[in-house]
Prior knowledge:
The chain is mainly alpha-helical. The protein folds into two domains: 10-87, no CATH class; 123-180, no CATH class. It is built from nine helices and five strands. Helix 4 (41-48) crosses helix 6. The model has no long low-confidence stretch (mean pLDDT 85).
Amino acid sequence: ISAGSLLDKLRALPSFKPLLQTGLSVGGELSQFLQLLTAPTTRILKHWFQSEPLMATLATDSVIGAMITPDTPGSGYVLLHHVMAQVGGVRGAWGYPEGGMGAVSEAIASSARASGAHIHTNQRVSSILLDSVGRVAGVETEDGSRVYSSTVLCNATPAQLLSLLPEDALPQDYRRDVAAVDYTSPVGKIN
């Protein structure tokens, strides 16, 4: 955690100005607003409900995609974020693409191909090739094939990406920080 006042830390946030404007607009209800942004889901749900099964059901919206628990400070905002969203004008609704997420990927690929992109699939990349000044020059696949390009898009996690680059391609402090990221999650999702 960096040194400095809370105000200094808030000012460093990209969303500080809209957050400040919202805080000023709620006036006398600022403490409730701050609690909403910082409270754990469990505190918010216990304030409004008594039924454990109902609270457990509602708490699921506070952990989806967040890799946190309902007891984590700020998870109450995640709950609010999920229940106030809307699809097709219906608040709290969730949308699923027709054909599943694969259909979304195919639509993106189709658009990219129409713009001249070449997409290579089912070819495990063993390394990202760099030119003499450290810019991306393409990839090498496990079978030794090379695909040259000035732009490479992939779906690797940052940790996987590090394993594809030469050791000296990125600063050591960045490599250390990425290596410390925990990708485990307590969440499972069944549709």
